[in-house]
Here is the input.
Amino acid sequence: MKKIIALILQSILIVALAACSAASGVGTDSGSSDQTSAGNEAVAATADTTPLAVEFSSEELNPSVDESATSIMLNGDSISVEGDGATVNGSIVTITADGTYNISGTLNDGQIAVNSEDDGTVTLVLNGVNITNTSSAPIYVMSADKTMITLADGTQNVVTDGASYVFANAEDDEPKAAIFSNDDLTINGTGALTVNANYNNGIETDDDLKIVSGVITVNAVNDGIKGKNYIAVNDGTITVNAGGDGLQSDNDEDATKGYVLIEGGTFNITSGQDGIQAETRLTVNAGKINIVSGGGSAINYELEESAKGLKADVDVTITGGTFNIDSADDAIHSNGNLTINGGDITVASGDDGLHADTTLSINDGTVNIMKAYEGIESETITINGGTIHLNADDDGVNGAGSEDSSNMQGMPQGGGTAHLYINGGYLYVDSRGDGIDINGSIDMTAGTVIVNGPVENMNGPIDYDGTFTLTGGYLLAVGSSGMAQAPSESSTQYAVRYNFDAMQAAGTLIHIQTAGGEDVLTFAPTKQYQSVVLSSPELSNGTTYVVFTGGSSSGTLVDGLYTDGTYSAGTQVGSFTISSIITSAGAAGGGFGGPGGGGPGGGAPGGGGGPPP
Here is the structure.
């Protein structure tokens, strides 16, 4: 287990979540299980957080150009105005009243400034503009109740600043972006906007930022898009190339602000630091999000700056959307809680795939962790549904406190308070370190877990230092035998841990059937292995089972598991009889926990192959 850096946790209200128990045998149902009050259900802690919501007004969703709008024409080095509410001073036009302003043309070195004390909205219609300012922000909202930038249909609009700003006095630090607003800012319309920010940030507001629609491209030396109080995105196509964060909300003075809400849209973010970062909460309900942060997962990331894909200090919630994240740091990270209620998530990470300091819950959706140092990590992990596949260089699923640190690789640290609850869903793990490593206890009531664990004996397919109470579901874990653990005697569903005399080659089938020839398991591990732990509702007390290695199967192969086919026998290597909740059989070996009775038992020759349960 790797060293976990201590992070400052936000205060979060914790409530009990009654998890579900249902299903038996092997299944790939990605939906959440039905909730029940059955005595064997696992109960996990999760945050009680009200869903984020931002209202988009009719004016914002349906922009229109007022025929009586004031016209501002940019003429290279000069500006002309037709209408009221705007005055010109050289190459700077200042808007002092609410209303609509239709802006067109090219400004070589100047500024659109807004300084209005009115209560209404100032609407800037960008109707094919190219605005450059070499020493300040091309668009600067000094004061306004609300400013709306509307991208006229079919237009291309470009805003570019210089590498340095000139301020009125040395104490000034505003404007701080190529498009900067001190007050609420909304961007809408169906046109296109390109922002080239050579000084600092691309688009920034010190208040609320809404992106309703439009095709927006931001190239920024620092942060791409920044809303202090919040960023709320309804739709649009947003491309960000940023030296800092792609999107950021950073209000750390008000617990109800500093959040990012994404209701839709397409995002293509390449960032030197975090892809999307929220000071408090980050919620994604829909959209297509593509992120490369910190150079991607291939980078040997040792920098002090955070380079995560999605990040929030308090809570990350995903209810939908499609994600492709390639991050040098954690792909999805919360200093508090992480909840996945849906979506299609694919990540590659130089550190953790999914990480939460406090609680991590997966209730539905599809999660593919293609590459990570550790796949899923949190102090409390709850899997109620969903389909999860992960590949990890170290531990696949790691339950550890936020201040835990590793000692010898694979060695249990003892006395841990971490917890893993599995109440449904489908979890497939392929790891070089421990497949499932919990510095505490495990409760499994339903679902399917398949682990291709380590080949080194200092790690194990399953590693826990508390108890592993298994009352339902399907568990299959293969790997090295030195540290292999089975579930605890507190379980109510039968399990077997079988150790082979020698390491078996990768891909060599494991086949288990009853003495009468009824198939229980046909599995092809991805790596060398010497132990197998199996728990299934099909295992029964007093029944004798025969173990084979090698051979072949005509069945359908999914994640190493064969179904709906015939097994052609390989070599019979042993047998066992279920005589207690946990049965240990085969060669001597196995790690801590999960003691069981029943040594090798007599058996009959194996029969033809068939589907597992």
Observations:
- The radius of gyration is 29 Å.
